[in-house]
Amino acid sequence: MRKGILLLITFFAFAKFGASQRNATDTHIIGDVTCNEKHLPFVSVVIEGTTLGTTTDETGHFQMLNIPVGEHKVTVSGVGYKPCSKTITTELGITSEIKFVVEEDVLRVEEIVVTGDRNAKNRVESSVIVNTLTPKLFNVANTVTLSEGLNFSPGLRMENNCQNCGFTQIRMNGMEGPYSQILINGRAIFSGLAGVYGLELIPTNMIERVEVVRGGGSALYGSNAIAGTINMILKDPINNSYEVGLNSGLSGIGVDGAGSPTIDNSINANTSIVSSDSKTGLALYGFYRDRDAFDANGDEFSELAAMNNTTFGTRVFHRLGTRSKLTGDFFNVKENRRGGDMDLTSIEHEADIAESIKHNITTGALTYEQYFRAKDLWSVYVSGQNVDRAAYYGAEQSLADYGQTDGMTYVVGSQYNAKLYNSSLTFGAEGRFESMLDQKLGFLDLENAVINADTITSIPHTNNTVVADQTSNTIGVFAQYEIDLNKLNISLGGRFDHYNVSDASNGTEKIGNVFSPRVTVKYDIQEFLQARASYSQGYRAPQIFDEDLHIETSGSKKVLHENDPNLTQETSHSFMASIDFNKQIGQTYIGFLAEGFYTILQDAFANEFGEPDAEGTIVYTRVNAEGGAIVQGINMEFNVIPSRKASIKAGYTLQKSKYEEAQEFGETAFFRTPNNYGFFTCDWTPTIKFGLSATGNYTAKMLVPYGEDYLIESKSFFDFGTKARYNIKLNGATLQIFGGIKNLFNSYQSDFDSGIGREPGYIYGPALPRTVYLGLKLGNLIR
Questions:
Q1: φ and ψ at 226, to 5 degrees?
Q2: Which residues pair with 274 in a beta bridge?
Q3: DSSP letters along 204-218, please?
Q4: Which of 99, 186, 254, 486 has its CA 20 to 30 A from that of 213?
Q5: What is the arithmetic mean of pLDDT over 81-92?
Q6: pLDDT digits (tens, 9 = 90+) for 261-273
Q7: For position 276, what pLDDT does the model report?
Q8: What's the helix, strand, coil split of the chain in %, to 5?
Q9: Which residues contact 372 (CB under 8 A, 6 or more apart)?
Q10: Integer Cα distance of 57 and 398 in angstroms
Q11: How far is CA 530 from each of CA 117, 212, 487, 521, rounded to the nearest angstrom?
């Protein structure tokens, strides 16, 4: 906390210094941006080496006021267009005009990405492959939350883990959720506690794009970035815009033996306002969702949990001068979810089975950026996330299964990006501090219950028991040097971390010092063909992970997760190689990516099943596997764009994940990990008004545990969806009406366990049964 206060004082000191940097010069730049003789609205216009920038308006024109006198490099960029730069010399009191004619970047190989090297650059120039998920993809697939959208990137697959509460996690390159580092605007504040249900709580309307980097990223981002990194980049207020949307779905239509279809309604809204001089901008976004529970097999217990959540957030910036900027972020997520008994009107402890979670997640961040020399950029930042979670995991009217978990994560750091003649240097220091208190609540104190209008609104507990009282502190320094040698690009990086993980509840403490190197090589075989290869080392510290905070509950047993007291750090060695081809052939644009990965896990984490006690409680203990593990495979991605009106994108993964020695059930294979899976999206826009899209996700067979006694091979699934949309122009705005079907063929699990003694962890396959939806959007940026 003290460090955060000192950092805020530093911010205000820089603000006072920066405010004097920009004076009214009455020197302006005006211009327009066109492509194929058509003006382009809402594309970005920036002066390089400064924080000055704006966007074109609805007519494709722009203006920048009170520009410093001198020579400037002005660059325009936008999704689907190649960046274009021009140099202009401004004079005091003179308005200069500059016109840009840009080319289409149909395959988006020159879009700006930041996650691969902690530095903004064109995707084709990045030393590692960076895939992006954009609002256009979210619109095509009608993804309401981030968890739905992640299925449309090679090597990624969302996995369902619980019939009762709907716990999900992302698998990347065959490795479970904690092997991937989740970032928000490049900061690792998405904690293990938030990760239990968090990806399903992030609405896509607050996201500008998601950048996915597969392969070890610990050299830049620290612990857990073994399988890769997922960076959620929130929407910037870069223009005056607004959008509001409604979506209503009906899930479970035509499912044999199921209960009534469930209703899923959501509302989202966005707006951004930028001052006339572009010095200050404010973005606001909100989201509300209400989903009923769904019973897939008619046993009066849910397979799809009821959810009610609200998200509100803002992003604001202020340019303190021509070369400095202060940015702030804030968002809050409130969620209630409950599964188990389909009767949700009773108090949890009156149900036969109930898994109930109430979240209050608050996230905030401040970033100060300052340019030095020509284009060097220094930034200092603080980000924090607080998670307040009240939970109940119990069965058979148990009064002893209420819990309360509180977590706080914050990151403080500084980074400097130096641009040299034919090279660049990025270095910095970062501290990540996380605390978590998990308590099992004691007896209900009914005498002191809060009663409002004859309804009990809260009941205090007494005699609480501490389950975990953990703190995890990591201090790291990192550096990366990158040099361009004609067609060859070489990048050398490394990070040194010192971590301390302590749990006051059991008196354990783990201390470690880790050096994580990374070497990448990119060679431009042709302008349209790049080859990349890399080696990176990563690690996972022996701390509590997200799945440890979820409890599987039935009427016959309860499954808890814990770490072995002797658990030691897990280390990875990751090797990657890829070929990236992007070229126009005739009138058709073709892109193809083949990316091989080979990861060695030393002291790999694995589970040991315990024996049930007298109350049916079973403990899964995380231990270090003998002999480690190897994860290997190939990711492929295809892009075919035959015209401006149509596009096809597909991805496929072939992989194997095996321990070197037999683990659970005498198996070496990773469970819940199919050896092949993939996706596709197709979009056709024959007119400006009408569009039609189709999406699909394929999941091959996989091994799924059924309790501690059986291992079952699942069937394969193909989840196919389609959507139609129609745009109506309304006085400078657009009203879009849309509708579609998800999982059209109802490729959905058919052998759910049933009854009070069911196995809630025996769940796999697509998240939703057949779902029909309708909706509309109104805004001035809808295309």
A1: -90, -55
A2: 281
A3: GGGEEEEEEEES--H
A4: 486
A5: 91
A6: 999 999 999 999 9
A7: 83
A8: 10, 60, 35
A9: 323, 378
A10: 61
A11: 17, 19, 9, 10
